[in-house]
Amino acid sequence: MADRETKERKLIALMVNDLGPGFGKKEMADLHKEVSVLSDPDLDETLAGRLDLPHSAGEEALEQALSHVDERSRGDQESFTGAPDMSHEPRPEEREGPSK
Questions:
Q1: How far apart, in whole angstroms, are the C-alpha atoms of residue 91 and residue 31?
Q2: Which residues lie below 8 Å from residue 75, measured CB to CB, with a gap of 6+?
Q3: Do 8 and 28 contact (CB within 8 A), yes or no?
Q4: Band of residue 37 on the pLDDT scale cut at 50, 70, 90
Q5: Are the C-beta atoms of 13 and 71 separated by less than 8 Å?
Q6: 43 pLDDT higher than 70
Q7: Which of 81, 90, 98 is nearest to 21 (CA)?
Q8: Please, what sign has the CA dihedral across residues 22, 38, 8, 10?
Q9: What is the band of 40 on the pLDDT scale with cuts at 50, 70, 90?
Q10: Which one, out of 50, 66, 68, 94, has a CA that is 20 to 30 A from the CA of 16?
Q11: Can you tell me the distance from the alpha carbon of 2 to that of 67, in angstroms, rounded to the nearest whole number?
Q12: In this predicted structure, what is the pLDDT of residue 62?
């Protein structure tokens, strides 16, 4: 049976995967906080929903599905810079040059 810490990490990995790149330290801290306040039944129910398991799925089915969730490695987290995602076009206020 997966412990609570593992379940929390897997749920955060699923959320980050769904929401995409560009998370800063504050956003990651907010995700950790949101997940950590879930009760054990709510955590299990949320994971089951995110993994498309039926509401009646047992602990074994949840465990099996969790084994397929990829988490970011600790090395990735340690090298995380917190820099904003600049893979998009800059907003008007981010652009340099004279205003028209």
A1: 25
A2: none
A3: no
A4: very high
A5: yes
A6: yes
A7: 81
A8: negative
A9: very high
A10: 94
A11: 9
A12: 84
